Structure formats: structure tokens, C-alpha cells
Amino acid sequence: MKGEVRVLLVMVLFAHTAFGQIVNVQGLMNEPIRVKKYEDISGSAYLYEDWQKGDVFDRSGKIYKNLLLRYDIYKDVWELNQEGQIYLLGRDLYTQFVIRGIDTEKQKGYERTFKAGYNQIEGFSPKDCFEVLADGKITLLKKHVIKFINEVTSNYGTATEVKRFQPSVKYFLLAGERATEVKLNQKSLREAAAVDSDFSNFLNKENSKIKSEADLTDLISNYNR
Length: 225
Hints:
- The chain is α+β, with helices and mostly antiparallel strands.
- Helix content is 20%, strand content 41%.
- The chain is built from 4 helices and 11 strands.
- It has helices at residues 2-17, 186-193, 197-206, 213-224; strands at 31-32, 52-58, 63-72, 77-82, 85-88, 94-103, 108-115, 130-134, 139-155, 158-175, 178-182.
- It is globular.
């Protein structure tokens, strides 16, 4: 009897994964969301409010393609919309996410990659998810962070409670097992580059000005070529 149950479970899993779906079987640690979140809070907890097409990689390397995904930055979890049922994807199981869409301001498509599993970044766990801006000899990571702020303001003797989400980002350079936080300015970058002589020499030759995320991403990408 137990053997038959195992065979049935395998068949169910195969049927779903063959069509690029993640099935919510007990033990896969995908939690259904049954309540509406974040009511009466200004701002957004999400990278994008709408669902994005994308792929999910589990820790064994299996790819689940063309899913509807949404990144809850505040809780640092990914949500899956599967035929109208919303799941929280287990952080122990899934290590990479790729989302695709159209940037309406720039009028062009984008593809953004997020990974977990980094154990050398102080203050974060290997389960925490980082956006990969550049990868190679030096990896440039972006950590999206959202804090919940609950304030009480007073106006003409009337107290008002204000709840809001406050977004921020951090950038890290990874060289081997060393991770260094870097800011979007030349001084910070040169201080971070001191840990790698090749990169430091590259900076001296390039003499690039770093004023934006795009500047930093281009610089690291050029070094990695």
C-alpha cells in the first residue's frame, strides 16, 4: 500500500512539473495565502505590484518555467500565482528567480535575476534574496529592503496614526569569499576595490565616475569581460 502511495505521489509531481507548475504537496513547504495583506499601509511591500512572468530554480537545479511571480520585499519571500491560488514559495527550497517584463518608461524589455545562498554577507542569511546586477570575477549584488514605519503625528491637537513602507537598497561586491558593501560614489568604490589588486588597477586605468546604479553595473560588467 505504501509503495502505491509513493508511486501516485511521483505521478502527481511529474504531471505538474512537466507543465512548469509547482504543486502544493505537503512537504514542499509552499504555503497558501488565505488573507489579504498590508491593508491601510501607504506604499508597497512589493518589487512590482502586478504579477511578472518568470522562472524558478529549486536547490537541485530543476527549473519551473513561465510562472506568475511576485517578490514581497518586506518579508523577503516570493509569491506564486497558480490558477488564481496564491502560494508563498518555501525559502529552503528555491534559490533563484528570473522575472521578465516591459519597462514602460524606457520602452524596452527587461530580465532580472535574483539569487539566495550567499553566506558571506554580514547581517544577512543564506536564505535572503539578492538581485544580481553583474556576475563574474566580481559579482555585484543589490539588496532590496523595505521597512515598516508606524508613526503617530499630531495636528491641532488631533493624533493620527500613519503606517507606511519605506524602501531602500544596499549594494555589495563579492570577490571570492569576501563581500564588501559599496555605495554609489567613487570614494566608496575605491575603498572596496582595495581588497582586490586586479580590480584596483582596473579602476585606476578606467577612472570612471560612479553616480548611479547603471554606472556601477557597467563598470563591474566591463571588468568581468
